[in-house]
Amino acid sequence: MRTHICKPKMILTAGFIVYLYVLIKVILFKWGSVDIHVLLYQLQRTLDQPNRIFDRQGNYIPFKEIIKEIHSLSISHPFLSTNLIGNILIFIPLGLFIPLLFTSRGASFVKIFMLPLLLSLCFEVTQLLLCIGTFDVDDLILNTAGGIVGYAASRSFAMMKKPRSHKDLVLSPNEKTNVVLLQGGDFLYTRKKAYAAIMLSIAVLSQSLAYRAYAASVDTSSITAASTLDKLGPITLKSSVSAKLTDVGFFAQDSGNILIYTLNYYNGSSSPVKLFDYFSRVTTPGGAIIQGRPLTNSATIQSIAAKSSQSITYFVNMGKATKVNGVKISLYGWDFSSADYQKRLGTIIVPSAYSAALGRGQSKKIIINNLPVTTKAESLQIYKFNGKVYAKIGISFSNTGVKMLTDTGMRGYLTSSGGSVFGLALNDASSGFKIQPQEKKIVYYLTEIPSYMKTDNMSLQFAVEDSTLSISLPVITYKLPAAAAANLVVASNAVKKITVRSNTVETQLKSATVYSENGVAKWSLKFRVKNSGNKSVILPAYELAIKAAEGYTFPVNSKAFANLKLEPLEEKVIDLSADVPLELSPGTLQLQMTEPAVADKIVFPIAYYQIPYSLQTNNLLGMEYTVENSLGTFGVKLNSVQRLPWSDEDQLVTKISIRNSGTAAVQLPVLTGVIKAGESDLSSTSQIVTEDTRTLLTPNETAAVYIVTNVPYSYSFNKLKILLQGTSGGETTNFLTLNTSQLDNTIGILAAGDALHIELAGKKAAVLERLTTVYSGTRANLMYTELVMNSEESRKFEQTQLVAYYKTPDNQYYEAEVNQSTTALNANGKSLVTVWSKIPLAVDTSQLILCIGEGVAEGKLAAPGIKPTAYINMVGLTLNKTVGTPQKSLLDIELFPYSLSVTNTTATISEGEDTLTAVMSYNLSQSELYDAGEYEHKLVLELIDPYGQATEKILTLGTDLSLGNLKSLSTTINSNLYRTLRGGSVRLNIYDEFKGERILLGGQNYSLTYKAVKQQQTTAIPNS
C-alpha cells in the first residue's frame, strides 16, 4: 500500500490559485479581461486625487443591503436574489480549501472566520482605493458566511467518509487510493477522480451563480450589467484601451426626453487614440436605436492621450421613453472587413435596479461653473399656509474649489412619485447666496404643490440649458428625504436664526404683556433682532400677525421692520402692539412672521413664536425695573406721579429716572410721550422735560425725565399708562412703557423754616422763607411771601422760573404771582423772590401752605420772565406768617431790601399863610446781597395836620425817594384854616403799599413851628 501526498497537494494548490484568479476576474474586473494596466492607472489617479475616495458611494451600515434585498426576493427582482445568494456561494469553495490549508489538528474557529473575512476585506478595500467598485460591508458579511458554510460542508463530508483508522481501509486488488493526513491523524478518504469531480463541480456551480450576481445574464459575453454603474466592467476597444460607463442621466421634457451618458475612455497604450474610430448607440427599451452625440463641452475632444483617461458625455433624444432601466449602450468601431464596416465591441445594459437619482443621505461631487462642489439633499419640508401647500427643499453645497460660488446656473425641478414635475424657485433667504471656498451652505428651493398629492418618494433634479444644442440637460438627481411637516414654532424666549441675504440674523420674542381695555386685549411685545453676520443687512419689511389656535389672525404694526438696518453684531429691540378679542385664550396665541408679499413670489411664514405672555406689570413708585430696547438696557424707576392745579385744569406730572445699566454709552433719542389716564388718551397736551440738556448717558449714569400733560379738573381715573417713544432719523420707536395704579396725590410738605432744595442739574439752590404776611383788604386779603434763593452751584447759572400756589388744608389752591430776578445767579449768590395771591376773606390765611415748583415751557425749564406752560417738582412750604406791629419811631423802617431811617421832620407855618410845609430828613439804603426782580412795593407818606386833615404822597424807593444819607423830602398842605393856626403838631405815618393794599409800618409826631412875619421872631410851640 502506498500513500500519495505530494501529488494531490499540488493539484489542490493549483486549484486554489485558479480559484483566486476567478475571484479577481469576477469581483475586480466584473468578468472583463484581467488588465493590470487598468489597476495601475486607477491607483495613479487615486494618488493624484485622494479626495475622490470620499466621493464614492458605498454601504457602511451592516445588514442594510441584506435586509433590502431579502425584501426584494420576488420574481420581479431576480437580480437582487442572485446577488444575495451569489455573494455567499462565491466564497464556499474557500471554505472547502481551508482543511487543506490548515492540516494541523483542529483549525481554530478564529482562522476559519478570519480567512474569508480578510480575503473579502482585501477585495472591498481594493475596489474603494482604486475606484473600480464600491465598498459594501454587507459583502464582507455574506462572503465570510460563505467561507464558514464551505468549511462546515467539508468537515461534514469528512466525518461521513472517514474510517475509524487507517487499518480499517480495505483495498480491492489493483485499486488506487489517496490517503491524506489531516488534523492530528484524521484522514480524508476519497478517490482522486471523485475528489476532482466534486471540487470542479462545486467551483463551476459557485462561479456560475456568482457570475449572475455580478453580471446579469445577457445574450453575449460582451454585454455587461450591474445594479450600480460602479460594478459595471469596462469594454475593451483594443489592446490597453477601454471604455467604462460612469454616469447616466435622464430629463423629461415636452420636446422629447433626453438621456445623457458618460463614458470614461482609458488609454493605457503608448500612443494617442483617435475617438473618431469609435462611436456609441443607444437601444431604448422599445427597440429604437439612436446614435449618441457628444455634448457641447465634449464635442471638441478628438483623442485620448497615451497613458491617460478622458470622460465624454453623450446625449440622445429618446422621444416618449420614460425609463433608463434596460437601456443598452453599445460601443462600435470601424471594421472595413465587415459588411457594414462596423464592429460592435461591447454592450452595456443599464441595470433594471439602477436609478440615476442619488440615494437618500448620499452626496456627490459635481462641477459647477468650473468649481468642484459636493452636493447633498438635506431636507424636504411641507408647509401649509392660507389654504395652500408648499414644498421647501434644502440642498447643501460644499465648495471645494478655490473661488467663490455665487450662481449655480441650474434650474431645479421637483418630481412626485407619480411623475408630476414642478419648477422650483429660490427661497428669498437663499437668493443671491455666496459660498466661499471650503464653505458649506444649505440653499432652499420652493414650489407650490397640490394639496392632494402624496409626498413620499419625491425627487429633485437639476438641469442646465445647452444653448448650442437648444436642449435642457440633466445634471444631478436626488432621492429626497422623507417629507416632514415644517415645524416653524419657536418656543417661548428661544432664539430663531434666519438668513437674510446670506447673513445670519437672530430673532427672539423676548417678552409680551397684555391688559384689558374696552373689551379688547391690548398686547405689547418686545422683539429682538441681532445681526450675527459679518456685514450690514437691511431687514425686509416682514409682515407680522397674532395667530390664534382657532385660525384667526390679527394684524401687528410692523413698520419698525421697514428699512431696518443692522450693522454686524448690532442688536435692536422692537416694540410691537396688537389688539386681540378677549375671548381668545392668550396661552395659545403665536406671533406669526411672514416674508413680505411680492408679486409672482411664493410667500409663507418664517416662524411662529410662542408668546410668553404675562399680565401687564403694575409699576410701583420708587422701584427700579429693567427695560430693554434697541438702544440698550436701562434701569427705569417711576419716582413720582403728581396731580397738580393749573389754571382751570389739572396737570399730571410724572417723573421717571432712566439709568444706563449697560456697558457702553448711549445717546438718548428725542423723546415724546403717550399718556393714557384710565381710558382717555391725554397725549395731545403732553410734553417731555429733561433736567439736563445732555443726552449722552455713560454707563450707570442717570437721566431724569418728566412727562407733563393736562387733565380735566373733574376727570377721575385709577390707572395710568406712560409710553415714551424715541424719534431718530424720522423714525419713531418705543423706548419704554410703564403702568401704575399708585396715584396717591401726595405733595411733600416741609416744616416751617426748612429749606426747599432745587435739585435740577446745574440749577441747584436752596429756597428759604424770609417773610410771610397778609395785606388785609376789604374784599380779599393779599397773601404775601418773600423767599430767598441761595445758590448751591459752583458756577453762575440761569435761575428757573418758579410757579407757586397757596393751598388750604382741604386742597383748595390759589394761584400765586411770582416775581424774581432775570439775571444769572452767581456761585454763593442770593436772589429775592416774591410770591403773592389774593385770598378770599373767609379763608384762614394762617393755615395756608405755599406750594412751589419749577416752571417749564416748550419742553424745557422756563427761564425767569418766560411764561410757564407747566411746572414740575411741587413741594409745600409751611409758612411762618407774621403780623407786623407799627413802630412808634420812624428811625428804623424796613421795606426789604431797603432800610429807611427818618432822622427828623420839621413842619412850619407862616403867619397869614394857608400853607403848611413839612420837610422830612432821612437816610435810605439798599442791601446789595440780593438779586431781585422789579420792586413792586410803594412807600406811602401820610402827613396829618393839627386839625386831623391828611395828605398822602406815594413814592417809589430808589427813584422818588433817593438812596443815600442826609436826604430830605418836602411836602406841603394847603388849608384856609392855617391862617389862624399858631402852633400844634403834625403826624407822619409811613405805609408799605403792595398791589393796592397797605400795611402801616410806623408813625411819629413832630412839632409845628409858627413863623410871625412882623416880629421876625419865631416862637416855638411845644408839642402837645
TrEMBL record:
The keyword Transferase does not apply. Keywords: Membrane, Transmembrane, Transmembrane helix. Residues 16-154 form the VanZ-like domain. It comes from the Bacteria. InterPro entries: Teicoplanin_resist-assoc, VanZ-like. It holds the Pfam family VanZ. The chain crosses the membrane at residues 12-31, 84-102, 114-135, 141-158, 194-214. This is VanZ-like domain-containing protein. It comes from Paenibacillus monticola.
